[in-house]
Design brief:
Layout (H helix, E strand, L loop, with lengths): L11 H7 L4 H19 L5 E6 L6 H17 L4 E5 L28 H19 L3 E4 L13 E6 L7 H7 L6 E4 L6 H11 L4 E4 L2 E4 L7 E4 L2 E2 L5 E2 L4 H14 L6 E4 L2 H4 L5 H15 L1 H6 E7 L25 H14 L1
Parallel strand pairs: 1-2, 1-12, 3-4, 4-5, 5-8, 8-11, 11-12
Antiparallel strand pairs: 6-7, 9-10
Helix pairs in contact: 3-4, 5-6, 6-7, 9-11
Length: 342
């Protein structure tokens, strides 16, 4: 093979023994999981808001951001169920260069996977212990999920992963809700097939074991827009798109019909300020149509301390080094406005 095997890494069980979660923190994870399931099943009328940096690139600024989010979340807890984004595997779109905290706990240094595994576990543990938030992470690499599975509230499967069989099979065995994004082509049938697969049990190979999953009844849709054959971003958050998704869910007869609208990515054309307008349009459409209201359970927003993005090495505290994000002041105001719509 045209590669070097540089070092054998600790397996998830070993890392969990080195960095254990206390019974108190486990109880918080379980309580939030139950509350989130109630929202997705329709038992609770609260609205989900998955919000935070595009990529969790710096432990101190991410915890600073989530601590600010905690204070706001407490004020709107009767309306919103807030899940911070701590996306620790988030690479650049091309896969070249920076590949997220798992690979590079320090974006300015070369990759160190063991330090990265420890860094992402410590970051999620800090968020849990200091703010009471179990958070969301993207399952970019299914075999790595076990390093964090006792800490997470929510898992996302990205647009480039949703067609991959291993992602679908692994999602079917997770104990937390999994959001399946529509692919970059925009084909909603692909996304619906992924949800169907994730909601059913399977036997498959996972980390060298023959594993059997029992299905994840809370697998659901994430609409993130798509790109046409000319490379142009096309949204799929408009009223007609949401009604179409209602119809697709009715045809498939899946459990716990639910959709999250991603306000950035191709829906905004990565114009991060558009997230404010998009969020308000979706909330307005929920008020207009009861079917849309029942289906659309939440929003996803990319937000950080500073507006926009920067290049690796510029060193601006709390500013994204991947996709541009909405700054804190605008984000805080938007959270309160979303809560008013619920």
């Amino acid at each position: 093979m045209n590669m070097n095997f540089e070092r054998k890494l600790a397996i998830p069980m070993e890392v969990k023994e080195m960095y254990p979660v206390s019974a108190k923190l486990t109880a918080i994870v379980e309580k939030r999981a139950s509350e989130l399931n109630d929202v997705l099943s329709g038992k609770s009328d609260r609205f989900i808001l998955i919000i935070g940096p595009c990529s969790a690139d710096n432990e101190d600024s991410v915890i600073d951001y989530i601590s600010r989010l905690r204070r706001v979340a407490d004020k709107v807890s009767d309306k919103l169920f807030i899940i911070p984004r701590i996306y620790t595997n988030k690479p650049r779109t091309t896969g070249d260069g920076y590949k997220g905290m798992l690979h590079q706990p320090d974006p300015n240094n070369k990759p160190d996977l063991f330090k990265g595994i420890v860094a992402i576990r410590e970051l999620h543990m800090r968020a849990l212990s200091e703010t009471g938030f179990s958070c969301a992470d993207e399952m970019l690499y299914p075999e790595n999920h076990k390093y964090l599975d006792d800490l997470l509230c929510y898992v996302a499967v990205g647009a480039r992963s949703v067609e991959d069989q291993q992602h679908r099979l692994t999602a079917s065995g997770l104990e937390v809700p999994v959001g399946m994004k529509n692919p970059t082509s925009g084909d909603l049938e692909v996304m619906m097939n992924a949800i169907f697969a994730a909601q059913h049990g399977h036997t498959f190979i996972y980390r060298g074991w023959q594993a059997h999953s029992f299905g994840n009844p809370f697998a659901h849709a994430i609409l993130r827009g798509y790109v046409n054959k000319h490379g142009q971003s096309q949204p799929n958050y408009h009223y007609e798109d949401l009604v179409r998704l209602c119809d697709l869910y009715a045809q498939k007869q899946l459990e716990n019909p639910a959709a999250i609208v991603d306000c950035n990515h191709a829906n905004s054309g990565k114009r991060y300020l558009e997230q404010i307008r998009i969020a308000k349009e979706v909330m307005g459409n929920r008020k207009y149509n009861p079917d849309v209201r029942r289906l659309v359970k939440g929003l996803m927003i990319e937000s950080y301390i500073e507006d926009g993005c920067q290049k690796v090495g510029e060193g601006i505290y709390g500013k994204s080094i991947t996709d541009p994000c909405l700054g804190w002041e605008k984000s805080e105001r938007l959270i309160y406005e979303i809560a008013e719509y619920v």
